[in-house]
Design goal:
Helices cover about 75% and strands about 0% of the residues. Helix 3 packs antiparallel against helix 5, helix 6 crosses helix 7 and helix 7 runs antiparallel to helix 8. It has one domain. The protein has about 270 residues and is mainly α.
Length: about 270
C-alpha cells in the first residue's frame, strides 16, 4: 500500500468515525437519556444542596456563622463551599453532571435547528441559507462554552482556585445567554418543532437581564448591600437560564415523534 492510499484510507476512517460519534451524540435516544438524568439527578441534587445550606446554620450555628442561606444574601456558588454548607459536594457534583448533560442537549438542538441533509439538491438549498447554519453553529458554540463553564464550576469550586471558578461562572452564565439569543432567533424566524414563544423568550431573556434588570440592581444596594444585590441578580440569571433549558427539555420530551422524523430526514 502506498503512502497516498494509506492517507486516503485513514481520512475515510476518521470521517466515518466522526459521523458515527456525531450520530450517536445527536440521536434522540441519547438526548432522552440526558434529559431524564437532568430531571432526576441534577435537579434533586441542586434542591438537596439548597435545603442543606438553609438548614445547616440553624442546626449548627456555631460552625456556619454566615447566617441562614437565602437567595438575597448568598451567591449560587456558596452552595459548593465548605464555609456555607456541610455538603458542598452535592452542588459541585450537580454542576459537573449538568455541564455534561447540557453539552448533549446543545448538540441535539443544533441538529434540529439546522439539519444537514444528505441529498445533493437539499444541500444546495442549505447553501442558499448560510445564515441559518452559521447562527446554529455559533449558538451551539456558545452553548458548548456555557456547558464547559458549568462543568468547571463543579470541578473548581469556590473553595479552590477562585479565579478559575469566577471565569467558569462567567462562561456558563453569558454562554447560555448568547446560546438562547441565537437559538431563539432561529426558532422565532424559522419553522421548527419548538414553539415561537420559546424563541421569543430566548431573545428576550438576555436583553431583559442585561439592559433592564442589571441596571435596576443598583436600587437594591441600599436595602441588601452591594453583595446582596449582586447575589440576587445572579439567582435571577440562574432561574431565567434554567427556564430556557427546561423549556427545550419539555418540548423534546413531548414532541418525540416530530423530532425523530426531523432528525431522520423524513
Amino acid at each position: 500500500m502506498s503512502a497516498k492510499d494509506f492517507l486516503n484510507q485513514t481520512r475515510i476512517y476518521v470521517i466515518n468515525l466522526y459521523k458515527l460519534i456525531y450520530e450517536l451524540l445527536t440521536s434522540y435516544n441519547t438526548v432522552r437519556i440526558s434529559i431524564i438524568a437532568l430531571i432526576v439527578v441534577y435537579l434533586p441534587l441542586l434542591i438537596t444542596a439548597l435545603c442543606v445550606a438553609i438548614v445547616a446554620p440553624i442546626i449548627l450555628p456555631g460552625i456556619y456563622t454566615a447566617g441562614i442561606y437565602t437567595m438575597v444574601t448568598h451567591f449560587v456558588s456558596h452552595l459548593g463551599s465548605n464555609l456555607y454548607t456541610p455538603a458542598p459536594f452535592l452542588f459541585n457534583v450537580s454542576c459537573i453532571i449538568g455541564g455534561i448533560l447540557t453539552i448533549l442537549l446543545a448538540f441535539y438542538v443544533e441538529k434540529i435547528l439546522a439539519p444537514i441533509p444528505e441529498k445533493t439538491e437539499e444541500i444546495r438549498k442549505i447553501f442558499a441559507h448560510r445564515i441559518r447554519i452559521q447562527l446554529a453553529s455559533i449558538g451551539f458554540l456558545f452553548g458548548f462554552i456555557a456547558s464547559i463553564g458549568f462543568l468547571f464550576i463543579g470541578i473548581f469550586s469556590e473553595d479552590g482556585i477562585l479565579f478559575i471558578h469566577v471565569i467558569a461562572a462567567l462562561m456558563a452564565f453569558y454562554g447560555f445567554e448568547l446560546n438562547a439569543l441565537l437559538f431563539g432567533i432561529l426558532i422565532l424566524g424559522l419553522e421548527t418543532p419548538f414553539p415561537k414563544i420559546i424563541g421569543l423568550y430566548g431573545i428576550a431573556m438576555p436583553v431583559v437581564l442585561n439592559f433592564i434588570l442589571a441596571p435596576l440592581t443598583k436600587y437594591l444596594i441600599p436595602v441588601l448591600g452591594f453583595l446582596g444585590a449582586l447575589a440576587t441578580f445572579e439567582w435571577i440569571m440562574y432561574f431565567m437560564i434554567m427556564a430556557w433549558i427546561m423549556s427545550l427539555v419539555f418540548v423534546i420530551i413531548f414532541k418525540k415523534n416530530h423530532l425523530e422524523r426531523r432528525t431522520n430526514g423524513k
